[in-house]
Amino acid sequence: MKLSVIGTGYVGLVSGTCFAEMGNHVICVDNNQQKLNALKNGQVTIYEPGLEILFHRNIEKQRLTFTDDLKFAIQNSDIIFLCLPTPQDEDGSADLKYVFGVAKNIGKILKENNDKDYKIIVNKSTVPVGTSKAVTNILSEFGIKNFDVVSNPEFLREGFAVEDFMKPDRIVIGSNSKKAFEIMRELYEPFVRQGNPILEMNPESSEVTKYAANSYLAMRITFMNELANFCEKVSANVDLVRKGMGADSRIGKRFLFPGIGYGGSCFPKDVNALIKTSEEFNSPIKLLKVVDEVNRQQKLVLVKKLLQHFNNDIKNKKIAIWGLAFKPNTDDMREAPSIYIIKELNKLGAKVSTYDPAAMENAKFYVDEIPEYCNEQYEPLNNADALLILTEWNEFRNPDFDKMKSLLKNPLIFDGRNIFDIEKMEELGFIYYSIGRKVVGL
Ligand code: UDX
């Protein structure tokens, strides 16, 4: 099939590359010249395991091309995917200026073309309910008739994006057109060979599905975070409680890990957008307000513990940090708890020294008060008063504990991701704080 993908950000680049891998011809469009040049020169602009090999293979086979020429892309494709940013507005709602802007340009181009070829315009960006209708209206205003708009939300996780795209749990397609359903089904069938469903629904249901899935997961994490805080007060171990709960097949084991709050480009933004839309339609989902509020507090839970340990005074204390990215296997810093933690530590007069295997360059854009960025895992520990673990990178899971002890001023660890066994840490002689489990070594 002939496809174009408008927007070569995270979703666009992964989708375009994976569609090409299935044998489709994909034209990726972007108006950011710097990014475009990099892509044309064979440089993958995001960090995503497995992407690079597919990217090069499909460029070589000439199934994947990059351009800033929207007209060329529209004229040479049957399905047009909108993979545009929908940033959070000041009031929490999703800002649709990019989606609507491109929809207008597509309208103009199709009009110039005398509306002669049938096109499907697919919203892959996370957009609030009603956007399919709004995009349809924009095209209709240009007198275009020979088209359908489809909502096809993307559920990929950073770090597993290629895997998720190639083997999705489900494909959701929202449309009112039989013809569009048929074509979309044909496009996606190779991706669900193992039997996962292609779910067809009206556009509104599809649009809500994306927000519902992300908000539900955010709520699940938030429940576990509050439960963990409670467990600490009553001598329960949240790890054991989590296993006890997760063994119930109605609950399931995944996404029950407490920590320092969810971050990333999706959960915080989508929770807020759903709060906003539900209020607009006079049907507020009140639960989500609490989810958002609790999550903001949870991001600072380690700082609270740290202050308590040092009798509310961490001025001039050296605090080492392992992990800055909002989760492992990504260099993404968007809404990472580390940003809020470092800002708070700076405010309290601590000296922060950090290491992250991938996110250090990006971190510099998010934290103005520059902490020390180290190129090696053990360097920040040198003479530090405490170590904070903020991202559960695998390389932190089995460290040289003797070396850590010899470098740290105190053998003191605050682990926001529960990566170590409490019994083991006690045996090794650390004072070890974690989330929802007793403090050992005090
Ligand atoms: C998420 C959704 O999973 C994906 O389907 C959607 O398309 C985009 O948003 P992503 O943002 O890549 O993906 O991250 P994810 O792995 O879902 O983690 C989100 C946040 O939740 C992270 O900050 C992570 O640390 C936190 N988390 C996750 C927990 O705190 N506990 C858990 O058990 C799981």
Automatic annotation (TrEMBL):
<feature type="binding site">
    <location>
        <begin position="155"/>
        <end position="158"/>
    </location>
    <ligand>
        <name>substrate</name>
    </ligand>
</feature>
<feature type="binding site">
    <location>
        <position position="158"/>
    </location>
    <ligand>
        <name>NAD(+)</name>
    </ligand>
</feature>
<feature type="binding site">
    <location>
        <position position="269"/>
    </location>
    <ligand>
        <name>NAD(+)</name>
    </ligand>
</feature>
<feature type="binding site">
    <location>
        <position position="210"/>
    </location>
    <ligand>
        <name>substrate</name>
    </ligand>
</feature>
<feature type="binding site">
    <location>
        <position position="35"/>
    </location>
    <ligand>
        <name>NAD(+)</name>
    </ligand>
</feature>
<feature type="binding site">
    <location>
        <begin position="255"/>
        <end position="259"/>
    </location>
    <ligand>
        <name>substrate</name>
    </ligand>
</feature>
<dbReference type="Pfam" id="PF03720">
    <property type="entry name" value="UDPG_MGDP_dh_C"/>
</dbReference>
<dbReference type="GO" id="GO:0003979">
    <property type="term" value="F:UDP-glucose 6-dehydrogenase activity"/>
</dbReference>
<dbReference type="InterPro" id="IPR036291">
    <property type="entry name" value="NAD(P)-bd_dom_sf"/>
</dbReference>
<dbReference type="InterPro" id="IPR028357">
    <property type="entry name" value="UDPglc_DH_bac"/>
</dbReference>
<dbReference type="GO" id="GO:0051287">
    <property type="term" value="F:NAD binding"/>
</dbReference>
<feature type="domain" description="UDP-glucose/GDP-mannose dehydrogenase C-terminal">
    <location>
        <begin position="320"/>
        <end position="422"/>
    </location>
</feature>
<keyword id="KW-0520">NAD</keyword>
<feature type="binding site">
    <location>
        <position position="30"/>
    </location>
    <ligand>
        <name>NAD(+)</name>
    </ligand>
</feature>
<dbReference type="Pfam" id="PF00984">
    <property type="entry name" value="UDPG_MGDP_dh"/>
</dbReference>
<keyword id="KW-0560">Oxidoreductase</keyword>
<protein>
    <recommendedName>
        <fullName>UDP-glucose 6-dehydrogenase</fullName>
        <ecNumber>1.1.1.22</ecNumber>
    </recommendedName>
</protein>
<feature type="binding site">
    <location>
        <position position="126"/>
    </location>
    <ligand>
        <name>NAD(+)</name>
    </ligand>
</feature>
<feature type="binding site">
    <location>
        <position position="327"/>
    </location>
    <ligand>
        <name>substrate</name>
    </ligand>
</feature>
<feature type="active site" description="Nucleophile">
    <location>
        <position position="266"/>
    </location>
</feature>
<dbReference type="InterPro" id="IPR036220">
    <property type="entry name" value="UDP-Glc/GDP-Man_DH_C_sf"/>
</dbReference>
<dbReference type="InterPro" id="IPR008927">
    <property type="entry name" value="6-PGluconate_DH-like_C_sf"/>
</dbReference>
<dbReference type="InterPro" id="IPR001732">
    <property type="entry name" value="UDP-Glc/GDP-Man_DH_N"/>
</dbReference>
<dbReference type="GO" id="GO:0000271">
    <property type="term" value="P:polysaccharide biosynthetic process"/>
</dbReference>
<dbReference type="InterPro" id="IPR017476">
    <property type="entry name" value="UDP-Glc/GDP-Man"/>
</dbReference>
<dbReference type="InterPro" id="IPR014027">
    <property type="entry name" value="UDP-Glc/GDP-Man_DH_C"/>
</dbReference>
<feature type="binding site">
    <location>
        <position position="334"/>
    </location>
    <ligand>
        <name>NAD(+)</name>
    </ligand>
</feature>
<dbReference type="InterPro" id="IPR014026">
    <property type="entry name" value="UDP-Glc/GDP-Man_DH_dimer"/>
</dbReference>
<dbReference type="Pfam" id="PF03721">
    <property type="entry name" value="UDPG_MGDP_dh_N"/>
</dbReference>
<comment type="similarity">
    <text>Belongs to the UDP-glucose/GDP-mannose dehydrogenase family.</text>
</comment>
<feature type="binding site">
    <location>
        <position position="86"/>
    </location>
    <ligand>
        <name>NAD(+)</name>
    </ligand>
</feature>
<feature type="binding site">
    <location>
        <position position="263"/>
    </location>
    <ligand>
        <name>substrate</name>
    </ligand>
</feature>
<comment type="pathway">
    <text>Nucleotide-sugar biosynthesis; UDP-alpha-D-glucuronate biosynthesis; UDP-alpha-D-glucuronate from UDP-alpha-D-glucose: step 1/1.</text>
</comment>
